[in-house]
Amino acid sequence: MSILRSHIQPCLWFDDDLEEAARFYTAIFPNSSIGHLGAGVGEFTLDGLTFRGINGGPALPFSEAVSFAISCEDQSEVDYYWDSLVDGGEESVCGWLKDRFGLSWQIVPARLYELVADPDPARSQAVTRAMLGMRRIVVAELEAAAASVGRG
């Protein structure tokens, strides 16, 4: 009996701008490259993860039901990915944005996860409330919200 070896590869359906999207994304993410592009199909790699893309026409646009989350080490990474990906797109809330192709991204500082996991429920809730009022997540504002409650 042989063991089946497979891997999961995201496949993105673009209207007719796969090549433009591949160039846009690979310019933003480190460890990225464009593989084969041609005849409306292709592959590109973003930070080591390979994506397949197709130019499928306008029938199936992206929606918020699928998004890609970027866990950022600090505010400078949040700002870099936010500014890069929202260029030509639109801001949403709670660290979400849509890029110029309509693909949804979550730009999340690792510090958010730490703060909402605080064992003091009042601090965790204060951080969550602060985050819910943001578009781009700002670490200093999250920490200020946690500090405003004090240690329980």
Note the gap between the termini. Answer: 58 Å
**Stretches with pLDDT under 50, minimum 5 residues:** none
How would you spell out the order of helices and strands?
Answer: EHEEEEHEEEHHH
| CATH class categorisation of the largest domain | Alpha Beta
Q: Please, what is the average pLDDT? A: 95
CATH architecture of the largest domain: Roll
Placed side by side, the strands forming the largest sheet appear as: 1-4-3-2
Largest sheet: 4 strands, mixed
Beta-strand share of residues: 25-35%
Please identify the structural class as seen in this structure: alpha/beta
Describe the 3D structure:
This protein is an alpha/beta fold. The protein folds into 2 domains: 52 residues, 2,3-Dihydroxybiphenyl 1,2-Dioxygenase, domain 1; 91 residues, 2,3-Dihydroxybiphenyl 1,2-Dioxygenase, domain 1. The chain has 5 helices and 8 strands. It has a 4-stranded mixed β-sheet, with helices on one face. Strand 7 and strand 8 form a beta hairpin. The longest helix is centred in the middle third of the chain and has 12 residues. The chain is elongated and about 60 Å long. The termini are far apart. The mean pLDDT is 95.
Q: What tags apply to this protein structure?
A:
four-stranded mixed sheet; elongated; 8 strands; single chain; 2 domains; alpha/beta; 2,3-Dihydroxybiphenyl 1,2-Dioxygenase, domain 1
Quick rundown:
With 152 residues, this protein is of the alpha/beta class.
Task: Give the helices and strands, then pairings.
Elements: E1 11-14, H1 18-28, E2 33-38, E3 41-46, E4 49-55, E5 67-72, H2 75-86, E6 90-91, E7 96-98, E8 104-109, H3 110-116, H4 121-132, H5 139-149
Parallel strand pairs: 1-4, 5-8
Antiparallel strand pairs: 2-3, 3-4, 6-7, 7-8
Helix pairs in contact: 4-5
